[in-house]
Specification:
226 residues, 9 helices, flat
Length: 226
């Protein structure tokens, strides 16, 4: 039977409910991981842009570790390695994905935050500190609000990558879209319809975010052009 045979597509639509559950599962991981990644990105991005060499060093170590170790290794270490060290460190597949993807993309987002902060003229930070603002207050009230506009386009790229990287959970048995497609199609050999459907669902999640980022980028170009 052809991989594009009508019967295979009918079987897919009959069982589409399990893909809907997998879609929500993937969406849940993406939202929780993004919250963690944003929190880490803001903290470490601010540390990286500070004058304090120790804070900059700590941020650099975090970024280098997570940017230079494949995400798959982090999944294996956390999911299989941590319980060997201590049984209380056993995490579900869902929370392993949230932790690993959040930490991994937190490093990339911190670099986006750092670049945005450094794009704001340094004199503004010095002026704020001369007026009695602490470094934290200067960042929160003056620097970060200006940096946000420049941060959004590269940040949306990171969000799209984060959503796609949640698929790594399939390697440890999480019930995400990729794992569901593989499990469902292995029973009836309808791999093509299953993975096309999953591709469409990822597209539904990622395309609006990527489009929004491009529009903000175009607006920024128009604003800064003479």
């Amino acid at each position: 039977m052809s991989p594009f045979a009508l019967e295979r597509w009918q079987a897919l639509f009959n069982d589409f409910g399990i893909f809907g559950k997998a879609f929500l599962y993937t969406l849940g991981i993406s939202i929780c991981a993004l919250i963690l990644a944003m929190a880490l990105g803001i903290v470490f991005g601010s540390m990286s842009a500070s004058k304090n060499k120790i804070l900059k060093g700590i941020s650099r170590v975090y970024v280098e570790i997570y940017q230079n170790i494949p995400l798959l290794i982090q999944f294996v270490v956390v999911y299989y390695g941590f319980p060997i060290l201590n049984e209380h460190l056993m995490l579900s597949a869902f929370w392993t994905a949230v932790l690993c993807v959040g930490l991994y993309h937190g490093a990339y987002i911190s670099e986006v935050i750092r670049s945005g902060i450094e794009a704001v003229p340094r004199g503004q930070l010095e002026a704020a500190e001369s007026q009695g603002f602490s470094y934290r207050e200067s960042m929160r009230l003056i620097i970060l609000p200006q940096a946000v506009r420049m941060i959004i386009p590269p940040l949306t790229n990171q969000v799209v990558n984060l959503i796609k990287n949640t698929s790594t959970i399939a390697l440890i048995g999480g019930a995400d879209l990729i794992f569901t497609a593989k499990s469902w199609s292995s029973g009836n050999l309808s791999f093509i319809p299953a993975f096309i459907a999953v591709g469409v669902l990822y597209f539904v999640l990622c395309f609006p975010i990527a489009t929004y980022g491009r529009r903000i980028e175009e607006r920024n170009k128009d604003s800064y052009s003479i």
